[in-house]
UniProtKB/TrEMBL annotation:
Source species of the chain: Haloferax profundi
Gene designation: carS
Localization per record: Cell membrane
GO BP field: glycerophospholipid biosynthetic process
Protein name (record): CDP-archaeol synthase
Domain of life assignment: Archaea
UniProt pathway: Membrane lipid metabolism; glycerophospholipid metabolism
GO CC annotations, alphabetized: plasma membrane
InterPro entries: CarS (IPR032690), CarS_archaea (IPR002726)
Regions crossing the membrane: 6-31, 52-70, 90-110, 130-148, 154-177
Length: 183
């Protein structure tokens, strides 16, 4: 039981890596022209200055490159941890990475509609927006891979583990001075 839970956690973390990296890469690469071009809707920004073309492109690319790197490392890592970890078809890496970015952008849209300024916290949404986006887009982009990879136990572990990891990495990025807010 203990062994299989550890295997589930390792598998869940591995398959979600191409979705975890994009938002962090966007923080490092962000800046430049906002996606909404500064436009407003009902007096509020459509998305805000925190969602840029450069950050979105860099984040998506980073997630896809990571998926390719993980494919190369898979035999060694699988041998090391004693689990047959999945590899990532290009469509799967693309779906996970772009989906993570679009989930986060969708959340900013909802934050602006509910009157929250750029950087405001939206507990719950902040921790899960990119997971939901990544899962939906991975399913659409690579359905056979998705259903074979995201078994129900893996999905449950992803949904429990991701918010915890999100809090830890964002507090870390804040303490390192990379982010303006610790969420
Ligand atoms: N970022 C970006 N493009 C994205 C996502 C993030 O350029 N698609 C960069 C921005 O510099 C952003 C930073 O990463 O400020 C932190 O991301 P996030 O916390 O998602 O944005 P916020 O600035 O907090 O804005 P929002 O309230 O809309 O989430
Ligand atoms: K966010
Ligand atoms: Mg933020």
């Amino acid at each position: 039981m203990a062994v299989s839970l550890a295997a589930l956690v390792v598998t869940a973390f591995w398959v979600m890596l191409p979705a975890y990296v994009p938002n962090n890469a966007a923080v490092l690469a962000g800046g430049g022209r906002p996606i909404d071009g500064g436009r407003t809707w009902d007096g509020r920004r459509i998305l805000g200055d925190g969602k840029t073309w450069r950050g979105t492109a860099a984040g998506t690319l980073a997630g896809m490159v990571l998926a390719v790197v993980l494919n190369v490392l898979e035999p060694s890592v699988s041998g090391l941890v004693g689990i047959d970890l999945p590899t990532f078809p290009l469509a799967a890496g693309f779906g996970l990475a772009l989906g993570a970015m679009l989930g986060d952008i969708g959340a900013s849209f909802l934050k602006r509609r509910s009157g929250r300024e750029r950087g405001a916290a939206f507990p719950g949404l902040d921790q899960l927006d990119f997971v939901v986006g990544a899962l939906v887009f991975a399913f659409v982009a690579a359905p056979a891979w998705f259903t074979a990879t995201f078994t129900l136990p893996v999905l449950v572990v992803v949904l429990v583990m991701t918010p915890i990891l999100h809090v830890v990495t964002n507090v870390g990025a804040y303490l390192l001075g990379l982010k303006n807010e610790p969420w």
